[in-house]
């Protein structure tokens, strides 16, 4: 079922119930969110406000690069080093395209999101932001990024934000659209929005509350507090601290090694794991249980299950 949105552009209204009947934005086009067979799914096309695309296209620069490996691991690189990997308008559009490519990648198991040249991402490109600083365009840009980042989070892949250097503003929000956050010992995540006279708008506040709770979210947003690896681990924002790049192993290698422990095995099983966790995270209990049964049905008696039974696998 595709949830249709009203054509009136007004305040964002997210229903408290995050299930089949209720995920509605009173914004300008159809939602990209789709619920099929009571499983949380993302649709393959973002149907965000069309005219904002034109405006975003007018701010080129940088790129969003995607590499898909035979191992089932992909790497997205936020690539705009001259501006500390800030998101130009064209990069916002490219991110949506890359997410779409991953939605249709049936062999995928995991994805790492990293920044180019030793830093993560400094948020929106302030030059583009200045040119669309009226509330209507700001909300449309946010809607576009919210939809894309929701689709990123809902990929049937285990996702990791690899934070080397700085993740600021929208860059901090991007980290919350991944399942895990790894940080180098010299990394910083900072929701600088308050210092810009703003609040997060790419869905980062909503996701942050789920990750670290409302008390910690208030501290991070109202205090624009710098999160270093130690504090990040303490509040549950950071899952693992990596060494700052030196010598033989670079940060991406470390990130890949960390992720590989979770994507060992057949893709059907890994993707099923992500789906049941997603349902548990987003759906009310009854619907999550139904979704879990449905996903279970896709692996029960499947090749990996039969092989484990035949091998009389022991879990010592
Ligand atoms: C909802 C999301 C939210 C929004 O859209 O409303 C946002 O994300 S707002 C943006 C939040 N981010 C910022 O405000 C970052 C501002 N920049 C900085 O604080 C610093 O530049 C920093 C800490 C990222 C890097 O400092 P450092 O001393 O290491 O380097 P420089 O300052 O010399 O930066 C190098 C070069 O990059 C340009 N730059 C950095 N960030 C941005 C950005 N977000 N947009 C555009 N350009 C950016 C900076 O201006 C320098 O360019 P140069 O031509 O050399 O002056």
Automatic annotation (TrEMBL):
Enzyme class: lyase
EC number: 4.1.1.94
A Gene Ontology term for the protein's cellular component: cytosol
Organism whose genome encodes this protein: Triplophysa rosa (Cave loach)
Designated name of the protein: Ethylmalonyl-CoA decarboxylase
Cross-referenced Pfam families: ECH_1
Subcellular location: Cytoplasm, Cytosol
Coiled-coil region(s): none
Function field: Decarboxylates ethylmalonyl-CoA, a potentially toxic metabolite, to form butyryl-CoA, suggesting it might be involved in metabolite proofreading. Acts preferentially on (S)-ethylmalonyl-CoA but also has some activity on the (R)-isomer. Also has methylmalonyl-CoA decarboxylase activity at lower level.
Keywords on record: Cytoplasm, Lyase
UniProt record similarity statement: Belongs to the enoyl-CoA hydratase/isomerase family.
GO MF annotations, alphabetized: methyl/ethyl malonyl-CoA decarboxylase activity
Keyword Cytoplasm: yes
Catalytic activity, reaction form: (2S)-ethylmalonyl-CoA + H(+) = butanoyl-CoA + CO2; (S)-methylmalonyl-CoA + H(+) = propanoyl-CoA + CO2; (2R)-ethylmalonyl-CoA + H(+) = butanoyl-CoA + CO2
Signal peptide: none
Gene3D superfamilies: 2-enoyl-CoA Hydratase, Chain A, domain 1
InterPro entries: ClpP/crotonase-like_dom_sf, Enoyl-CoA_hyd/isom_CS, Enoyl-CoA_hydra/iso
GO terms classed as biological process: fatty acid beta-oxidation
